[in-house]
# Entry
Amino acid sequence: MEKITASQLKDLLLFTADRLIAARDELCAIDAAIGDGDHGLGMAHGFEKVKTVLSARDFTGVNEIFQQVGMAMLGAMGGASGVIFATLFMGAARGTAAAELTADEFAARMENALTAIQTRGKAQVGDKTMVDALAPACDAMRNTDGDLTARLSAAAEAAEAGAAKTAEYEARFGRAKALGERAIGHRDAGAVSTALIFRAMADWAAEQAD
# Structure
């Protein structure tokens, strides 16, 4: 895919929503090791609301889609995860109003999302948060040649590697911070969710290319 239209972005995010909803129990199990154990429920609730909002009508601009997804997640999830994942999509809405995005522009929107999240939460790579998956995904999109399909594939692989690496870190944020070294050996649920988002987007793009 050389470009993604607003209509296609809507389809991509509906596909992503289904994937994250299906991962509810997996994400809860990951979170139970060092957190409250409800991360999967929150993500599922958030993406159920996303499906409702996106399915209600058509959209002509990509900014409104990203903004509506973020607002849906903020309203449905609540808590720190709701704020952070809402910021992910609201950050991606920052840019010139457009009816479609090129691969470069999509990559730039993901960079905007990362900047928004780090501005809000101050997390860096190595802090055992979703930034550990998002930052390498952004790097991969920026540094990969090719169309959107190729870049999303690279981003998904980088995000998955980043999420896996969180098992090596102590946590610097959230409930897991209090565990110190006991958090080592367990992945961060937010990073895993971020990797799942990029994998879903990559799989959707690959299906369009078939």
In short: The chain has a mean pLDDT of 95.
